[in-house]
Structures are given as C-alpha cells and as structure tokens.
Amino acid sequence: MPIATVNPATGETLSTFDELGAQEIERRLAAAATAFHHYRTTGFAVRAELMNRAAGLLDADQETIARTMTTEMGKPVAAARAEAAKCAKAMRWYAAHAERLLADETPPADETADAGAVRARVRYRPLGVVLAVMPWNFPLWQVVRFAAPALMAGNVGLLKHASNVPQTALYLEDLFRRAGFPAGCFQTLLVGSRAVEGILRDARVAAATLTGSEPAGRSVAAIAGDEIKKTVLELGGSDPYIVMPSADLERAVRTAVTARVQNNGQSCIAAKRFIVHADVHEAFTERFASRMRALTVGDPMEETTDVGPLASERGRADLEELVDDALRRGATALCGGARPKDRPLGWFYEPTVLTGITPDMRIHREETFGPVATVYRVGGLGEAVELANDTPFGLSSNVWTRDPAEQERFARDIEAGGVFFNGMTASHPALPFGGVKRSGYGRELSGHGIREFCNVTTLWYGAEPAGA
Predict the structure, then answer these.
(1) Residues in domain Aldehyde dehydrogenase (predicted)?
(2) Tens digit of pLDDT for each residue in 160-214?
(3) Order of all β-strands in the sheet with 352-355
(4) In terms of residue numbers, what domain contains 303?
(5) pTM of the prediction?
C-alpha cells in the first residue's frame, strides 16, 4: 500500500511520501536508543512539564490537525476536533498522575521478613524503545493513548502509522519535538508493513504495541514471541448492545445510533450487534431504523454531516460483501444496504440496519467496519448472554437494564474487556482498555496501561553487617 494522503470523500490522491530506506531506519533506531539512555533518568516533573507543553500545543493546533485527520480518513470534522481535545486531556491526565501510578511499592515488613529482607520495594522502571504499529481510524487518539503513558514512564517511542494517514503521523513527531522532548524520544517511521519485522527484531527495540486487524496482531505477536519481547495487542471487536425490558428505551435508541455510527462506524468498540429482548424488540427496532435512516451522509468537512465516507475503497468493498452475503441469505434491510445514489465520488455507504441474521451469514461472525447494524431478538437474559458471547471477539459490550440483579449477571457472564451499563462504550485515561479472546491482550490507559511497558523490579535489602 503506498504511503499517501487520499481524500476518501473524493478518491483524489493529494500527497505521496517516500518510504524510509534502510540507512535512515538505522539512523532513527540509533537515535531512539541514545535518547532512551538519557531520557530514562529524567524525573517525573521534567516529563510532566514536557507532556503538558505538548497538550497545550495540541489545543492550539486543534482546528488544523482536525482538518488533516478528516482529509486523510474521512471522519466528520466535529468528531476530529473532539478527538484532538481528548488527546490533550489524556496527556494532561498522565502528566498529573504518572508519578503516583509508578510510585515505589513497599510490601509490609512482616510479609518479607522470612525472605531475609530488612526491607523490600517494588519499582517500575522503563523498558526502553517501544514500537507502536497504529491504525488509521483514530489516527491521533490511538497513538496518544500509547505515547502519553510510555513517555511519562521514561520509555521512548517509534511510530509505524497506517499508510493512509502520513500527515497525521508526521504531525505527531513534530508535536513532541516542539514540546521540547529530547531528540529521538518520539519518531515517526514512514515505512510499509514489510519493514515492521526487521525493526521489531532489532535488539534496540524492547517491546511493541499494536492496534489493528487480527492478521496484523498475529504477525507482530509471532515475531515478538520469537524474540521474547513484550507486546500489547488491541484487535477487532464485534461488541454486543443488549437492551432489556427495564431499559429507558428512548435513551437506549438514541445512544445506539451514536454507538453504531461514531467515526463513520469504523471503531473497534462501536456497538455492532444489537441484541434486544422480545418485549421491546419491535419498538426498539422501529425507532432505531428510523433514526439511522434520518442521518445525514455527506462531506465530512460540513458541520451538519453525521456520517462521512469510509476511509478506503477496499474498506467499503469489504463492508458491501458482508451486507450482500446477508441479504442473499435472507436478511432484511430496514434501511440502507447500498451506496448512496447522490454520492458518486468517494467511498460512502448508507447507514444500514439488518434483521433476520442467521449463523450461516458471514456478518454473524465477522466484524462490520462501517455504519451497518445487525439486530437480533432474544427471549431472556440467558439467551442474550449466549448470543453476546457467540463471537471470536471480546473487546467491550453495552447493556441496557435498570435491574441490579440483571446487571450483576451480565457483569459476571459477558466475555469482554468491558461492560458498560446504560451508556456507550468509551475509552478514558482513568479506565483500563483492552479485550479478551481474539480482541487481543494487555491493557492500555489507566495505571494498568502505563505499567505494561515497565520493568517491575524487586529491590531487596539485607541486613547490614554490625559496625558497618
């Protein structure tokens, strides 16, 4: 895939970029290793000052970088501004909390005395150079939620971003440079996917994090495993959105639309499978389809646009294949199901609601990365849980019920990294984020995320000799 900015609203190639050659990759690896040798010894106050400065610059750049993201991958410009603001918030959060999250831990003396220790501590030390392989769908946020904790922990970063968002990738390197981070602390590598293996196998790279597809995750995990290097993977999702009879139906419907079409439906944690109790199925489905049908599909630079284009022609083709397969096998489209006729240019797709989904349809098992929702009818809580878990993924989930006993059952039985009650799944700096099953492993954000790329070091102190 060429490294290029291609406007998904028009299909026009706006800029192309040359891949880095072997000599330049080597120079950057050396710079990263040198930077880590010095940067790891800086204190939290210094790192926090730099991170807060980066947040301030990002706030000042919000409109410019929002338009860059919209141009490169098609998200509505209002959503792009919100993404930039969220990134600045996360930077400030880690600047404020990293020292506390990584403070030395001292086990009680009576618990370590029989180990011969006069005292003992646990210290979190940075691992080193971390390679981040990141996707295009949240081109700023996906990177910052790795970079902010990694840099605050004393690591340095190498970013291999998606090939269709090169200008956003270069902006991030420049942002941290302008904030005053030492040279080599955060570098963007404009390389294709074939270069990842060589970089990851380099002895100067200590660990890797990847957000992306299941095949990409398998590849990076296999290489890192062969090299015995730490990885964190956040892969696909097919999140259930369960609606029970006690739900506030109007809020559930309104939130369902946002949960499905956020980021033009291109989000791992977007609700994709709507599992609705029979008692409220008809009312929910009618309102949901009506609201989806009313969404404005159009130019993502327009403030009134609800849904912009998909990020790539291939992405739209993949989505069409899933929908067409379902329709051929008997599914019903309550709205959408095709390209909009008034948008001949660009990679647009109509907001779509499908019912009558059966296990033989590909869409029952595979992730839909676009504004397409599948709606199921279930007879009770047990059937809802069974259907929610009938997927190879386990990233997050949404459950609408005001019954405390039902909430406890869902919290216990749903196989996912998160269960959000009476609201929409979201990522937040203070809460751990990640999945189970084929959605990956490890956690981003919160204290769990910042410790992923730390050397958890035991410090053991024996008795000093008498008279020493």
Answers:
(1) 3-458
(2) 999 999 999 999 999 999 999 999 999 999 999 999 999 999 999 999 999 999 9
(3) 332-335, 352-355, 372-378, 271-277, 239-243, 398-400, 420-421
(4) 239-421
(5) 0.96
